[in-house]
Amino acid sequence: MGRFGRWGAALALVATLAGCGDGGDTATGSMASGGGANSPSGTAESACSLRNRKNWVSAQMNEWYLFPETLPASLDPSPYATVSDYIDALTATARAQRKDRYFTYITSIREEDAYYNSGADAGFGFRLTTDATQSKLLIAESFESGVALAAGIDRGTEIRGIGTTASDIRSIQAIVSADPNNGISDALGPDTAGTTRYFTVADPSGAVRTVPLTKATYTLQPVSPNYGTQIITDNGQRYGYINLRTFISTADPQLRAAFATFKQQGITQVVVDFRYNGGGAVSIADLFNNLLGGGRQTSEVLSYVTFRPSKSAENETTFFAPQPESIIPSRVAFIGTGGTASASEGVINRALPYLGRNMALIGANTYGKPVGQIARDNAQCDDRLRVIAFAIQNANRQGDYYNGLAGTVPNSCRAGDDLTRRMGDPQEASTRAALDFLQGKSCTPISAGASGQSAGDGPRKLVQPLRPSAAQRDVPGLF
Q1: Whole-angstrom Cα distance, residue 461 to residue 455?
Q2: Distance separating alpha carbons of residues 133 and 254, to the nearest angstrom
Q3: pTM
Q4: Is residue 445 within 8 Å of residue 415, measured between CB atoms?
Q5: How far out from the chain centre does Cα 306 lie?
Q6: 22: which DSSP letter?
Q7: Quick one: angle between helices 50-64 and 83-90, nearest 10?
Q8: pLDDT of 404-449, one tens digit each?
């Protein structure tokens, strides 16, 4: 799987091109789909007309889409106002079958490259979660270099109102009532540096205040320097704790450092916290499994990647490659929620054949994405098409977890996401349940259909715009 740059991956055979934007469809970057008749021709302006961009997408889908039998025999692109709307129509059948829940999409090359290479993003630097009625908007976490944390807004803070000035703040209930689908994300404004919003917030202490925040560029640390790596002593035993927010390249040295500490400390039981991790780079997922694979041989299968029959030459088998920092785990507790998707689910699924009943899923059911995307780039238009092109299976050929991993992992323990405590606190609900599993205590299993993110505050979900950015897809709830 080394050739596939992301769990929504970039093929090594993909050449470089460029892209334009229309309406909600923006892109900026360089990779291109080599491809003769499929490539735009003429001037950049004509090549990047809305119709030509749609035609290019259609050609890529017909060549690479993992579920070709679900594509329309013909679909007139004319009625669709944006490229994204056209993709929605092309993938409607696969979405109805839960095989492609908005996993195929158009994005910006420059925007995506900036995020995956360095974690760079522009925003307030917090992650938002809401209850089922969207009446209670809470901070799930704030990131270290973001403006929100600098203003004292962190995990557990409630946002009660949002406005463009201090005098036009609207309550969350009013915002959601006017637009239940995208009201909150629209109220937060565009993801551009310099955008200012005023917030009425209630701190965990109960104090209510009005705070202006201005979006700025910041760098997201994939492993929090504050709580992302810990050695937890509980009930006379020591456990490793690692919280990975997203699978981007800068996670490599942070994960190696964490597992080097675990190895030096003789840690064999680990809590892996993926509760908000929406995925990312295959290379980092491979590294994570290998850091948990100290006892594995290089002849043992880590995963299988399978394309559609017409692209079977691209199929690949990945084998374990233990690293100097790798540990030999005896038991592992993986914390997940409905926000746990793609590469994070893949790490869990690929551990199953080797850990079996010595591992568990803690929290809630995961999202359900056992497939990966390739990147097809139309660089002169700055379009990157992320198209579902391959399925991923573990060494036992398990991989059809479209309804989440709760029905696949043999052990699971239902637990809430306790926003009153930081993640990794031994008394935080999911961390506590993970430690209890490692200590052999009984628990209530997760229902295969339970993908909510809190057992104690009603079903809760991370806030996501209708057209998320590259960063928001892999860091759900990010603004």
Answers
A1: 12
A2: 37
A3: 0.89
A4: no
A5: 21
A6: B
A7: 30
A8: 999 999 999 999 999 999 999 999 999 999 999 999 999 999 988 6
